[in-house]
UniProtKB/TrEMBL annotation:
Pfam families: Glycos_transf_2. PANTHER family: RFBJ PROTEIN (PTHR48090:SF7), UNDECAPRENYL-PHOSPHATE 4-DEOXY-4-FORMAMIDO-L-ARABINOSE TRANSFERASE-RELATED (PTHR48090). The lineage of its organism: Bacteria, Pseudomonadati, Thermodesulfobacteriota, Desulfobacteria, Desulfobacterales. GO terms for molecular function: transferase activity. Residues 7-156 form the Glycosyltransferase 2-like domain. This is Glycosyl transferase. It comes from the Bacteria. Gene3D superfamilies: Spore Coat Polysaccharide Biosynthesis Protein SpsA, Chain A (3.90.550.10). The keyword Ligase does not apply. It comes from Desulfosarcina widdelii.
C-alpha cells in the first residue's frame, strides 16, 4: 500500500497527439498523485491538451531541452516520490504501481527496457555500450542507463538538480550520481511500446556523442581513477612495447619510450589528485546535507 505523496512528472515537446491518452491512462490507476506536465516550448497544443486532460501544466517560453523540463518538474513537484515518464506513449502507466511498491526499500527504481523495447537496433547497441561503461565506473550492474521511466525519492532528486544537464541525458547523470553516493537502485523489467505517433527528436550520432561525453564527465566527477588509470596503464604498456621494439631493432632506449613512460606517470598522478579533490568535495557535500537537515529539524521543533 502506497502511503507517500506521489508526483508524476512528464516532460513533453509537441506531443499533443499522445499526451492526453497518457494522462487518461494514469488517472485510471487511481493513485491520487499529482500529474505535472512540463511543456518545453511546444509549437502545437500540447499544453492545452494536457490541461484539459487534468494535468498541472508548466510551460517553458521556448524549447530548452528534455532535462530542463525534468528539472522544472522536480522544482514544482510536491510529492515525496517523483515518477518520471515520457509523454509519447512508450511507457505503460500500469508499471508505475509496480515501481511504487518497491518504496521505501529502494531509493530509486528504474524501468529497464528489453532489446525489443528499444527504438531501433542502433540505439539498442549504443545503450548496451553505455550500460557497460556505467557498470564499470559504478561497480554496479546498470541495465538501462538512459531509461527515462523511473521513480525516485524527491529529496534525492532535488539534491541533484545542479548536476542535471538540459538535454536528454539527465537519466545518465542522475543514475551515476545516485550510485556513486551509495543510494540503493532497483532495475525493474518493463515493456516499452513504439511511439504512438510523431517522431523522436533524439539524433543517434549527435546525442550519442553527447551521452558519451556526459558519461565521461560524470565519471571523472565521481570516480576519476576509473578513467585516468586505464589511460595511464595504456600509455605505460605502449612505452613497454616501444622500448621492446627499439631495443630489438636499435639496441637502445629511445626518446619516444621515455615520453610514453613520463606521460603514464603524469596521467596517474593527475588521477590521484582528482580522486582526492573528488573525495573532499563529496565529504563537504555530505556535511552540508547534515547541517541542512539539522536546521530543518530544529525549525520543525520550533
Amino acid at each position: 500500500m502506497i502511503t507517500a505523496i506521489v508526483s508524476i512528472v512528464i516532460p513533453a515537446y509537441n506531443e499533443s497527439n499522445n499526451i492526453g491518452n497518457v494522462i487518461s491512462e494514469i488517472k485510471k490507476l487511481h493513485l491520487d498523485a499529482e500529474i505535472i506536465v512540463v511543456d518545453d516550448g511546444s509549437t502545437d497544443d500540447t499544453a492545452k491538451v494536457a490541461q484539459n486532460a487534468g494535468a498541472i501544466v508548466y510551460s517553458h517560453p521556448y524549447n530548452i531541452g528534455n532535462g530542463a523540463a525534468v528539472k522544472t518538474g522536480i522544482r514544482m513537484a510536491k510529492g515525496e516520490i517523483l515518477v518520471f515518464m515520457d509523454g509519447d506513449g512508450q511507457h505503460r502507466p500500469e508499471d508505475i504501481r509496480r515501481m511504487l511498491e518497491l518504496f521505501p526499500e529502494y531509493d530509486m527504481v528504474v524501468g529497464a527496457r528489453t532489446m525489443e523495447g528499444q527504438a531501433s537496433f542502433g540505439r539498442a547497441i549504443g545503450n548496451q555500450v553505455y550500460n557497460w561503461m556505467a557498470s564499470y565506473v559504478t561497480k554496479f550492474p546498470v541495465k538501462d542507463l538512459t531509461s527515462g521511466f523511473r521513480a525516485i525519492k524527491a529529496s534525492i532528486a532535488k539534491s541533484y538538480i545542479y548536476l542535471l544537464p538540459n538535454t536528454y541525458s539527465y537519466p545518465t547523470t542522475i543514475t551515476l550520481g545516485v550510485l556513486r553516493d551509495g543510494q540503493s537502485v532497483k532495475y525493474l523489467p518493463i515493456e516499452a511500446s513504439k511511439r504512438k505517433s510523431g517522431k523522436s527528436s533524439i539524433r543517434i550520432f549527435n546525442d550519442g556523442v553527447r551521452f558519451l561525453m556526459i558519461i565521461i564527465r560524470i565519471c571523472t566527477l565521481y570516480s576519476p581513477l576509473r578513467i585516468f588509470l586505464p589511460v595511464s596503464a595504456s600509455m605505460f604498456l605502449l612505452g613497454c612495447v616501444r622500448y621492446f621494439y627499439s631495443y630489438i631493432t636499435e639496441g637502445r632506449f629511445t626518446n619516444m619510450s621515455a615520453l610514453l613512460y613520463i606521460t603514464s606517470i603524469i596521467i596517474f598522478m593527475m588521477g590521484l589528485v582528482s580522486e582526492q579533490i573528488c573525495q573532499m568535495r563529496f565529504e563537504r557535500r555530505i556535511g552540508s546535507r547534515s547541517v541542512h537537515s539539522k536546521y530543518n529539524s530544529n525549525d520543525s521543533k520550533d
